[in-house]
Amino acid sequence: MPSDGDVSIRVSGVGKCYHIYARPQDRLLQFLLRGRRQFYREFWALKDIDLTIRRGESVALIGRNGAGKSTLLQVISGVLQPTGGSMDVRGRIAPLLELGSSFNPEFSGMENIGLSASVLGLSEEQIAERREAIIAFADIGDFIHQPVRTYSSGMQARLAFAVAAHVDAEILIVDEILSVGDIAFTQKCTRFIREFRERGTLLFVSHDIGAITALCDRAVWLSGGTVVADGVPREVAHHYKAWMAGPQQHMTAQDFLETLKTAEAEATEVEAEAEAEAAVEAEVVVTQGGPDGETALVQTLDAQVQTVFRRDVLSSGEGGAKILQAWIEDARGTPVSMVNGGDLVTLCIEAEAQQTLDSLIVGFGVKDRLGQTMFAWDTTKTDLVIPPVNVGDRFRAGFRFHFPYLLGGTYTTNLAIANGTSDMYIQHHWMYDALEFHVQWSTVAQGLFGIPMDGVSLAINP
């Protein structure tokens, strides 16, 4: 356990209970009888939450709607009082919670700057010094003089974030506010958050898994008001997405995670045994000697290093189809183990129908080591007309594209089979990180992708 000096937020056994009344008159009856009879049912939005956040950590809260994320943020921010448990928060908090929650809708944006900044702890002198910087950061033009009730959700988010960015907070709490702004506002806020991480503590709620893995050191998965998992963002998000893909209808998040970890442990043992057997076989080949044996060994290892399809990875879905194999082909249709940026390739996915699929969807998504999606595609994004697939039918989808220029490193590919439309579908088989490939070297200088550079010129005219 970290020492008290290293802790920004410590939550111990916190619970939050709401009284749910079936009829309006039950509230009056409850008041008149003063507890001699209960006219409500209890709803626990938070149940015995324990959470410690160290100074300088960036922690994300993830979970489906109603999991308790916003309630926990409001309790930590002091907006709500917990029903039970204790909290210790050290440092000035800048909470960005529900849009406009700290604004008076009848006040102008200018007046609300003073109101919100004073609530967050700034003096009149400090507010006066920073007012112009806040106005510039918000960048809402003449609307700064209009009542906040006339603002769009994006304009409210701009003003709220602008105030929070200028109050010298030590703890920044962000509750999905980035989802309502335009791209310029989102990029500005993301830059500020990245800079803030260097000096403060961040508590972040978002349904954008890519943002969570990019901005946070830890992820805490909440479900039903309790903590399901707390760990590395990519791993926690991986398990959460697997549960959201279907099993949440059949089992609780806690039960699913226990089942999943057991399956992963068994898969790891099987994989380790397979690697051990492969190592023994390879050793035999080398021992036999000869240039042919050595050449075969090098070729086999080279193929394994470049592209690997794993059947025993984590998967989810309703079971109406099963992915059997996936591979990459070159422009001639030959399976390859190595590709270069710019190569014309085809990603092939072969599967078998376990039930009739009248509106088949096949798709894939490539992720980097942080879990950020690099690119993705599925058959709903084309004009392809797919006939119904019957039970027992095997089918193969091919996605033909020019392979992008990626940074060097390891990338994994999610594979998916579904039935329905792009807006409404049933996931039948989703394989996580099933196809793995490695970029051995790269010409990408900066960023996530590179572009083919045909030439660079520089002319000086004296």
UniProtKB/TrEMBL annotation:
Domain ABC transporter: 29-249
Top-level taxon in the UniProt lineage: Bacteria
UniProt cross-references to SUPFAM superfamilies, sorted A to Z: P-loop containing nucleoside triphosphate hydrolases
Pfam name, any one: ABC_tran
CDD domains membership: ABC_KpsT_Wzt, Wzt_C-like
Keyword entries, A-Z: ATP-binding, Coiled coil, Nucleotide-binding, Plasmid, Transport
Coiled-coil portions: 253-280
GO CC terms, sorted: membrane
MF annotations from Gene Ontology: ABC-type transporter activity; ATP binding; ATP hydrolysis activity
Entry similarity comment: Belongs to the ABC transporter superfamily.
Record PANTHER family: TEICHOIC ACIDS EXPORT ATP-BINDING PROTEIN TAGH
Protein name per its UniProtKB record: ABC transporter ATP-binding protein
Organism: Azospirillum brasilense
